[in-house]
Amino acid sequence: MRFAEARFALSTPDAMFPTKTRLTVLNDIVRQTGVVPKELRDLPRLPAALEYLWDWFTELDATRGQGFSADLAIAWQEINAFFAVQRVTPQRWELQALRRIDEAYLSSRARIAAGGGQVAAGAGALRDKITGAQ
Question: Which of 36, 39, 43, 44 suits a disulfide with 2, CB 3.0-4.6 Å?
């Protein structure tokens, strides 16, 4: 869950560059300066044993419906169809994990809708250092 929540937090629009996500801005900083911001260094890692679960979520995410003003939860019908096509019978804890990840995703989207764009930690200071601004 920590991995998912961190990824969703970084998928918010960056306050300084609202057309880019925070993750894109942070990766741009790395690419342009070679400096890895603390925010990227401290990102939780996805355990290798759970990579398949994240893959399931990202595939299911593509089936997500849109409500009037927000994303909808991934429908149980979509989850059922996904596993039927895959010929996989998920364990109960895997379904619960997918639901928790989806809830974290929806919470992150609600924060974005409420104006939750953030500036990457230290980005202003790093920009000033790079440009020589005081």
Answer: 44
